[in-house]
Amino acid sequence: MDTIASRSRASRSGLDEVGRPVHRGGGRGVVLPIALLAALLLAACGTQSTTPVAAQASPALDVTAIDAVSLRDRLAKGELDAESVTRAYLDRIAEIDDDGPRLNAIIAINPDALAIARELDRRFAESGPVGPLHGVPVVLKDNIDTGDAMATTAGSLALAGQRADKDAFHVARLRDAGAVILAKANLSEWANFRDDRSSSGWSSLGGQTRNPHVLDRNPCGSSSGSAVAVAAALAPLAVGTETNGSIVCPSGVNGIVGIKPTLGVVSRSGIVPIAHSQDTAGPMARSVAGAALLLESLIAHDPADPGAQAWPGGAPDLAPDPASRRLDGLRIGVYRSYYGAGQHPNVEAVFENAVAQLAGLGAELVDPIEYTPPAGQGDPQRTVLTVEFKHDLDAYLATRDLPGDVDSLEDLVAWNSAHADTAMPIFGQSVFEDAVATTGLDDPAYLEALEANNAHMRRTVEGWLEAQSLDALVMPVNGPAWKTDWVGGDRYTFGGTSSLTAISGLPSIVIPAGEVSGLPVAVGFAGTAFSEASLVQMAWVLEQSLQARREPAFLPSIEE
After folding, report:
1. How confident is the model at residue 17 (pLDDT cuts 50, 70, 90)?
2. How many whole angstroms separate alpha carbon 260 and alpha carbon 295?
């Protein structure tokens, strides 16, 4: 991006260079600036470690460059201690996110992070690792409740400072597993469900998150901050959420691994909702093994989630088998009815290479698998999402004590209108307004749309898999990221494959497959309900063959 031009455009719109309203001080006006907070935390802790046993990280070792699984293993063996690892990531956030390229991925640091890490080190000295994620820092998307000093805001100024009474169910699972909840990540405000012309990665509280590969390019949404945090090594692991593509797209665009699990196996309790028929949380990591490690701790039956599904057989075992490096005997369908097919030869070359690799690894390919959506498919999808959004968000807000009598979606619409200069400087709230006008879950139009949309898609995808004895589908995920200019909203020209699994509730995993003009391009696998272990193994085998993930270059711009 041309920095001068960007600043000129931002100034004219009343925004700073990362899209925050200039006279409000940005999203971090409600918390300490990250660099300052990190410095204060380090100063408060002094130079002496309280860790009695575990070895501190060597100054020559960059722990932020270690994959999550290797990091976990070193922590479990006492080769690293949680406090030093946490310090390293706090320093990295201050260096890369607040300064340097200024990625704007982190919206708030957990002021208790170092204290949590020191307590984990104390417990390690007494009895060894606390759990499977002992000492591993994890970043959470800022629509996930934490019962601590961090707010849960969905990126909205209307929720600034709003703190939950308790952890979301899956956050409690992460703490029990020994994770250090490091920070909250920026996101597309209200998970990209406020306006039809929204900019992915932008929120009124946090500003615009930048793609770490090329800074003037979009990180995709809505789990943009979570994906960028992992891609730029601000954290080894992150949790995102998805309704339709919000784990898949940012993972692909930022060159990392993301898993959208089977609907209901990861609890939705304590997540700012969009729609219960599609919402899920899921892991993001730099490797398939890292994403699988995090997902194992996220999966657990939550009786408080009406849509919860119990994992068959109890606790999942998702770690890929390193001894199995081929795909012999597997039948994989090649999905080619994606949006933009035939229009992006460079992207399609990346996909074709991945398909060829699958064949070389022994998979039997069924090519092509094609699908023509029913005419007007987008109408029932919008009906389902807007009806459920009003119902689900009103129920969520009823559990919160928000300032200004913001107790419902209708109140939020009024609040945004009253604070339009700071809450809506780039785009409006057309989706909010459509959702306010809906009449409820007993509306016949909603029930008809639910059948035409979600049930139809599930029957379709499962029908392909069953009729042709397929173990999975493989598909392209994204084209190169578009420029972020805050004018006219996102510019998708390729993709749409996320809808297959988002609408059907089936699982998917995406991995880096190559790049176009220095921007990551991904491929993904989709399968039947509860097939995450099989998808992880397929993705891991292909990942080892492709070796396609690249470290971000933090380029300011590239030639078109």
Report:
1. low
2. 10
Please classify residue 219 by burial: count the beta carbons closer than 10 Å to its beta carbon, then call 0-12 exposed, 13-18 middle and 19+ buried. Answer: buried
Give pLDDT tens digits for 144-194.
999 999 999 999 999 999 999 999 999 999 999 999 999 999 999 999 999
Between 46-60, 86-100, 129-143, 389-403, the lowest mean confidence (pLDDT) is in: 46-60
Predicted confidence (pLDDT) at residue 1 exceeds the cutoff of 60: no
Cα–Cα distances (Å) from 451 to 245, 266, 438, 515, 517, in that order, read 21, 23, 18, 38, 41
Per CATH, the number for 331-376+449-546 is 3.90.1300.10
Structure-block tokens of residue 15: 């925004």
284 contact partners, CB below 8 Å, separation of at least 6: 223, 226, 227, 230, 237, 238, 239, 240, 247, 250, 251, 256, 257, 258, 291, 294
Q: What pLDDT digit, counting tens, does each position of 26-66 carry?
A: 334 333 333 333 333 333 333 334 343 445 555 578 999 99
Neighbouring residues of 446: CB distance < 8 A, sequence distance ≥ 6: 383, 384, 387, 438, 440
d(CA 508, CA 528): 9
Rounded Cα gap, residues 379 and 452, in angstroms: 10
Report the DSSP beta bridge partners of residue 511.
523
3-state helix, strand, coil in the chain (%, to 5): 40, 15, 45
Per residue in 502-546, pLDDT tens? 999 999 999 999 999 999 999 999 999 999 999 999 999 999 999
Query: pLDDT tens-digit profile of 349-360?
Result: 999 999 999 999
Topology agreement, domain 22-298 and domain 331-376+449-546: yes
Cα 524 from Cα 259, distance rounded (Å): 9
Residue-wise pLDDT for 369-405, tens only, equals: 988 776 666 789 999 999 999 999 999 999 888 777 8
Closest to 139 measured CA to CA, from 324, 13, 272, 284: 284
What contacts 165, CB < 8 A, 6 or more positions away?
147
**Cα 415 to Cα 196: distance, rounded to the nearest angstrom:** 19
Cα–Cα dist 512/286, whole Å: 9
Three-state DSSP state, 157 = helix
Instruction: Report pLDDT digits (tens) over 339-352.
Output: 888 889 999 999 99
Q: Do 19 and 13 contact (CB within 8 A), yes or no?
A: no
Q: What does the alpha-carbon distance between residue 504 and residue 383 come to, in Å, rounded to a whole number?
A: 16
Structure token digits, residue 317 = 């075992």
State both tokens at 156: 């909205």
Question: Which residues carry out catalysis?
Answer: 141, 222, 246
Span 22-298 CATH architecture: Alpha-Beta Complex (3.90)
Measured between alpha carbons, how far is 258 from 508 in angstroms, rounded to an integer?
Answer: 8
> pTM of the entire structure?
0.92
Q: What is the pLDDT of residue 486?
A: 82
543 alpha-carbon distance from chain centroid:
20
Spell out the domain ranges in the chain: 22-298, 331-376+449-546, 378-445
Q: Using CA atoms, how far apart are residues 382 and 484, in angstroms rounded to an integer?
A: 25
pLDDT reading at 10 higher than 80: no
